[in-house]
Every structure is written in structure tokens, then in C-alpha cells.
Amino acid sequence: DPHSAEDVAFVWRASWPFWDRDVLQRRWTYDLPGGCGRAIVMRSFDDDALLPQRSDRVRAFVHKCGYLLRPSVGDFASVGVELTVCQQVDLGGLCPEWAQEFLTRWAVHRGIQWADSVRRHCSSRRADRLAAAE
């Protein structure tokens, strides 16, 4: 498959009093024009054979989601990856507006935490490689 299509399932753990959400989506990978990075594009689909509905979770639906990964440009110390994320998600279930805002803030915060942990991991790996090369 030239676009590396794959099916992905995962669970978004929610804080009390909300139910966890599960997601089933198809993911495609594309090269950006000019070889300047990669795009990862996702959309939910239904398939009870792959991920049956569970009574203890709500099925969320990702209408569209995209990640752009591009190399950062700068001096040697600033080598890295620029990550851009955009998504539209229906959390599913009965979810009042105040709760959607709370869950959205929570999800954004978790995304920022994840990006920071990836940055720290990559920085430590780079430092290890530089130390080993000396």
C-alpha cells in the first residue's frame, strides 16, 4: 500500500465521572510535497469484528485528524521536528457542553504532556549518541 494504510484501535481514559472512550480508525501516511515532511491522516470507521462495542465504554468518532511532521530548521542545537495536529472528534454519548469543554481541555493538556515527554526522550537519546561519539 503506497499510503501505508492501517487500522488502529485505542482507549481514551477519562477522569471520573466520565466513561472511557474507545476509538477505531484508519490511518494513512503521506509524504509532503518536496520531501519536506510527512502527513498522517486518520478517520474513524465502524467494524464490530475488529472492535466490538463494550457496555463499559462509549465509542468516540474521529471525523478527521491530521498530523504534519516537518524537520525544524536552525542551528545545530535546535535540530528537531515540528509537529502540527488538527482534529475533529465526536466524544459520543450524552456529554453536556461543560463536560465537553472539560474533556477537551484535558485532552489538549495530555497531548502537550505527551509532546513534552517525546521531546525529553529524543533529547536524551541525542545526548547519549553525542556522548558515545566523543
Verbal overview:
The structure is a single chain. By secondary structure, this protein is an alpha+beta fold. The chain is built from one helix and six strands, in the order ββββββα. Strands 1, 2, 3, 4, 5 and 6 form a six-stranded mixed β-sheet that branches. Strand 2 and strand 3 form a beta hairpin. It starts with 5 loop residues before the first strand and ends with a helix.
Class by SSE composition: alpha+beta
Mean pLDDT: 84
Flag low-confidence runs: none
Strand content: 35-45%
Beta strands, count: 6
Alpha plus pi helix count: 1
Helical residues, percent: 25-40%
The ordered H/E elements are EEEEEEH
Q: How far is it from the N-terminal to the C-terminal residue, by CA?
A: 41 Å
Rounded Rg: 18 Å
Q: What coarse outline follows from CA principal-axis ratios? A: globular
Largest sheet: 6 strands, mixed
Keywords:
six-stranded mixed β-sheet; 28% helix; 1 helix; 134 residues; alpha+beta
Fold topology:
Layout lengths: L5 E7 L8 E11 L6 E7 L13 E2 L1 E11 L9 E10 L6 H37 L1
Parallel strand pairs: 2-4
Antiparallel strand pairs: 1-2, 2-3, 3-5, 5-6
Brief summary:
The protein is an alpha+beta fold and 134 residues long. 28% of the residues lie in helices and 36% in strands.
